[in-house]
Amino acid sequence: MQFGLSDEQEMIADTVRSFVEKEIYPHEDLVERSGEVPAEIATEIKRKTLELGFYACNFPQNVGGAGLNHLEFALVERELGRGSMALTHFFGRPQNILMACEGDQVDRYLMPAVRGERMDALAMTEPGAGSDIRGMKCMARRDGDDWIINGTKHFISGADHADFLIVFVATGEDQTPRGPKKRITCFLVDRGHPGFTIRDGYASVSHRGYKNMILDFDECRLPSGQVLGEVDAGFDVMNTWLYATRITVATMSVGRARRAFDYALRYAAEREQFGQKIGKFQGVSFQLADMITEIDAADLLTLAAADRLDQGLPANREIASAKLYASEMLARVTDAAIQIHGGMGLMEDYPLERFWRDARVERIWDGTSEIQRHIISRDLLRALGA
Amino acid sequence: MKVLVPVKRVIDYNVKVRVKADGSGVDLANVKMSMNPFDEIAVEEAIRLKEAGIATEVVAVSIGVKQSQETLRTALAMGADRAILVVAADDVHVDIEPLSVAKILKGIVDEEQPGLVLCGKQAIDNDMNATGQMLAALLGWSQATFASKLEVEGDSAKVTREVDGGLQTIEVKMPAIVTVDLRLNEPRYASLPNIMKAKKKPLDEKAPSDYGVDVTPRLEIVSTTEPEARKAGIIVGSVDELVSKLKEAGAI
């Protein structure tokens, strides 16, 4: 077992961290107050990211990415996790699933996404299909060589800035002993395509400015060339390419927890009550000890899961454990950070109340904590035939 | 023209320093170290000169403990072409004095024959502000300190200096030593391709003896103390009160 990062990996993490501190933090209050990222700020973040060669760093070098491995990419996202998601969205990391592009899809979607010319967003969730993805109602029916899509998707992050969407749609149904199961196909849909509209979603308590959008498909006609991967093979595409995205939630949770912890630590070292620094009270100092222990544990669990992917080892359970533990750790750490600050922790003068609100969604999206526990336990029990 | 940039590994400017219990200096064990911020500005300027087609090669040099190679890798990741590490100490608490550093740098300049040496005006750890000047004296080169603007034109350079109460522009003959100030530029982030390339760039390791320099300290640190804690302020109720308090204090 090897611990420690290489010089390059340290430098990657340091560079992204100082980028986030200098280019993201200063705009956070504005985004938080307005719920919007001004276009010029978005453009500037994107331009600088491209200039630094970090744009689409998760893509292989042969398509113009930087070819970072899973561990290195987790380090990048960990440091990005410190900053507002609405803003770090423009530190572009297109969906890896675009590597499934074939034929002219490569020049129309993959390459422009890697070059930062076109932004993508992924659409799976529906009002009636959250964790139960096979319960989706958004359907595509064949019409000659074309497909016609009808239905609604919601909670689609990034769709407000997307030039095209990667959409999972039901294209049939199989009868199985455990009831009907949807067959799913993945489509590429351009913004502005007839029959396709993108509109604002709900006002959310978490990640203001990183909007959840609603997609409506009304007799939206798509040629068969818009299918990403094979027809009815949406689950295969998902499993091949979206397997690792839960690491994003885990590692970003670690980054944000460290930022919240830094506030708590500093406050405990400076704030005086009853004639001494509050950090001298065991009630506070033990809390700090527990916080950093949990943060380090989540960090190691997450990097170890990413490293398993790099080694080509099965990592489904490990990724689920990392996502579960890191997101729940973040909830405890942000809560404790506020407790250490007392009433001031809830005021908008500190970003802690924001971290606390933002933390709530991490236990829900990209698979709820319950789904992660299901994945972990199934992985263990199935091996015993249970 | 080749540009030589000496860089120093110092305690990170974000770290709250602590004096060692025996008063012999600042505790450097297990604290974050970084490139001296003024040196970072010097590296940035050198790279800009290269991008402008004025410099042909940027060589970064560091003199200190072996770990200084991390600092050199940072310079390489920013865009320096190659690096020279002179390992002059084993213990991170040993600070090589400016005259020794200047003598070693003179040896390197003799070998490398750069047309320009760009240094930070001072290191943020001991604030000596001496190495650049000493190097200029040893080489007999012209020097321009505290640069906030640098324009190289043929065999001379126009340097704007930040002096007390304003700016002074001087012209120096090349080759020259220029020490840089805070407002000269804003250093770039290392780009990802450069971070990946940094490891492949050459980094030569040398010893002070290669340049015939004895780095034994000549100065003795008698004591190191933390600055006095700031006294509590007062909250004034009005502008009038503020003005009268300032008058009382003789500030206005």
Task: State the gist of this model.
Helices cover 47% and strands 18% of the residues of chain A. Chain A contains eleven helices and ten strands.
What is the fold's blueprint, element by element?
The complex is a heterodimer of chains A (386) and B (252).
Chain A lengths: L6 H28 L4 H13 L18 H11 L4 H4 L16 H10 L5 E4 L15 E5 L2 E12 L6 E13 L2 E12 L5 E5 L11 E12 L3 E2 L5 H8 L3 H26 L1 E2 L2 E2 L4 H29 L5 H26 L10 H11 L6 H14 L4
Parallel strand pairs in A: 1-4
Antiparallel strand pairs in A: 2-3, 3-7, 4-5, 5-8, 6-7, 9-10
Chain B lengths: L1 E5 L2 E3 L21 E3 L1 H15 L5 E8 L3 H11 L3 E6 L10 H15 L3 E5 L10 H9 L2 E12 L2 E8 L2 E8 L2 E5 L11 H7 L4 E4 L32 H10 L4
Give structural notes.
The complex is a heterodimer of chains A (386) and B (252). In chain A, a hairpin with a 2-residue loop joins strand 4 and strand 5. In chain A, helix 3 runs antiparallel to helix 8 and helix 7 runs parallel beside helix 9. Chain A is globular, with a radius of gyration of 22 Å. Helices cover 47% and strands 18% of the residues of chain A. Chain A has 11 helices and 10 strands. Chain A has 386 residues and is of the alpha+beta class. With 252 residues, chain B is of the alpha/beta class. Chain B has a 9-stranded mixed β-sheet with strand order 9-8-7-10-6-1-4-5-11, sandwiched between helices. Chain B has a two-stranded antiparallel sheet with strand order 2-3. The N and C termini of chain B lie far apart (52 Å). Chains A and B meet through helix 1 of A and helix 2 and helix 5 of B.
